[in-house]
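Form P-L/3: holo structure prediction, ligand zinc ion.
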Amino acid sequence: MNIIDQLRIGIGHDTHCFGLGSFLMIGGVRIEYSRCLLGHSDADVLLHAISDALLGAAGLGDIGEMFADTDPANRNIDSAKILKSICEKIYAENWMIVNLDTIIFAEKPKISPYKEQIKNRIAEITGIDSFRVNVKAKTGEKVGIIGREEAISAECAALICKKKLLYISGIFVTALYFR
Ligand SMILES: [Zn+2]
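OUTPUT (holo model):
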């Protein structure tokens, strides 16, 4: 297999609207707030974006195909479980996560105090080192559904590589070193 076939990139995007409630789940972290996000699962907008980015990178479709919102078994499901099972699936196909770059779009609540906690939680769920995860937060500048505080969105870019690539480059580096 050509070396360029050993690397894949994927993107994920998700949006959930606000509803009545007292906390949000973002990146697997519980954030106390005067409202919640509505959804069939726990509405963790960031974990859904990461899940879709990884599935896209591995060419495995999308989160809706794997965890249909029409299936009662998925009602109120913990999105960390969804992401974990997607990771198991891609790791079983010998993919490794190189890095995840994420953005949370929220006017309120303020996400920056939670960024480090979210980053560490994503690393824990996916089983990768936290330096491979980046979390950014943006507001909606008071316009659009984010700025009007109607919803929160999230995006993720994921790069994955076949374990074999690391093996091949390891041999290459070793050969260079000892030549
Ligand atoms: Zn979602």
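COMMENT: The two ends are 26 Å apart (CA to CA).
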